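User: Here's a chain of 137 residues. Predict its fold as tokens.
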Amino acid sequence: MIIRSNVEEESPRIELTPIIDMVFLLLIFFLVATTFQQTERELSIALPDSEAAGPITMQLREIVVNVTSEGAIIVGGNTVGLDDLRAMITEAVEANPEQKVSVRGDRDVPYGTVARVLDVCKGAGVDAPFLDTVPFD
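Assistant: Prediction complete.
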């Protein structure tokens, strides 16, 4: 004999509250992470034009070296000298032999200053430092 109860069973449903919480936390994490990485690239550096320029890609643990129009070398928001830069890059290459370095030289800085920075990078063990440019308008 089949006994039926008068209690209706609810169909299973998915709770959206934990999913929405997780999505907001991920969104906040990626916004904060992007903001920290973009800080180095937003210095007032006017990059030179280049036909072969492409979009700037962010590599994990990439060192960004900015050379201002006055010739100051800035890494991570701090002004450093060539000797400090060499020590910093040598230490990074020892920790990661495939260390990536991007050099962003202002278009008004003398080429010799940028060449010295590139030379320091090569001398510290970086295989191929990148020289960032922007495409022609």
